[in-house]
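Posting for a labmate who doesn't have an account.
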Amino acid sequence: MREPKDFWDKNAGRYDRFMRKDRAAYDEMYALIRPIVRHKTVLELATGTGLIAKHIVNVAAHIEATDASAEMIAEAKRDNRSAKLHFSVQDMFRLPYAEESFDVVIVSNALHIVPQPEKALAEIRRVLKDDGVLIAPTFTHAGNSFSGKVKAFFMKLAGFPLHSRWTSEEYLRFLRQNGWSVRKSAVLKASFPLTCAECVKLEV
């Protein structure tokens, strides 16, 4: 499996500028996440430059923020001012943590760009406590306007790895089919519709 790491390594420096245009949606997302992570031990996968982790760490007990791209993690570490926030390079398909290590796992805008998202969900399930919460906001490209489809086409030309094109409903169904109960969901207005899902483990 070829990781899209080289894309993220090359674009690490530009990532925050790219995300700035969706600042309003991200501010809404931080507001949704903060009450869930309050005083909790958190794992974030695909942290990128650490935008989410840095915005919520003040309320969390501790955050392990990880990414497959060493360049992204180097960028994230540059202005980390919190002793409660630790950045490291990890593969979300083979995490080095024990079973049931975390109260909350966050995977934002990553499940649609990895080749086997169901495998990532299985690994998340392993490291999340049985009463833990998965927060999985994802850009849902498929139900898009024409302009959204054009944007997605140019992103693909630029080398942006896009493996799953879900509508919001398809994405929530995908989570349910892979062992998660969607407790709450919201669709935020951004460059692409941002579907935020708050999930707990389904009893198997």
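Reply:
Got it, the structure tokens are right above this. The chain has a mean pLDDT of 84.
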